[in-house]
Structure formats: C-alpha cells, structure tokens
Amino acid sequence: xxxxxxxGGGSVQAGGSLRLSCAxxxxxxxxxxxxxxxxxxxxxxxxxxxxHIGNNGTYYTDSVKGRFTISRDxxxxxxxLQMDNLTPEDSSMYYCASAYSTRYxxxxxxxxHYWGQGTQVTVSS
Length: 125
Hints:
By secondary structure, the protein is mostly beta strands. It contains no helices and eleven strands.
C-alpha cells in the first residue's frame, strides 16, 4: 500500500525560505516518480517539481526554476523540496504525489495515482 506524508509547511515573509519533506513508503516497482503539486483557492492544480526514483532525473515548472530544488534523502527514503526567495504567488496547499514510470517523469496531474494530504505554505508581503 503506497503512502505519502508531507511536512514542513508554515508561514514565512517574502524573500524567506522553507523546506518541505515527503516520506514515501509501499512502492512495489523499482522505478517511479515523486512530484510536488500546489493549488491555491480558485486556481488550477499546478505541477511544481518531480524526481525519478531510479535515475535521479529532475523536472521543474518554469516559474520556480532557480528558486526551488527537489532532491532525495536516500537514507530516509524521503523527498525534499527546498524553496528559496519565496513570493506571495507561491502561497498554496502543497501536495506530494507518486506514479510508476520506467525512466521519465511529467508534471501532468492525471499521471499520478497516489497523493498525500497536503501541507499549507503561506508567504506574506
């Protein structure tokens, strides 16, 4: 049974930083993707970043390139999202999701079958 659990959300001033964590367990196959999505009230859910568990390939949406970094803590089987230089536009509920994949990842919502409960990020101006 695949389970995902997010942590690390909170409130921060513009220009500040936060680090989100996603603890993943129960994946049966050797190759899969773990991604971060976000959704603010009244807006579409948006793919933020993804990493392939197997070849370590990473993927980012344009609006966070250079500010966010996704990585894997191999010892803990945990996926991290380091968020720097935050702006109010980054305020959202952030979700961790996973999908089985042989080699590549996408940031398309319908590709992901397993989801966590989310963690709130609020950036004040």
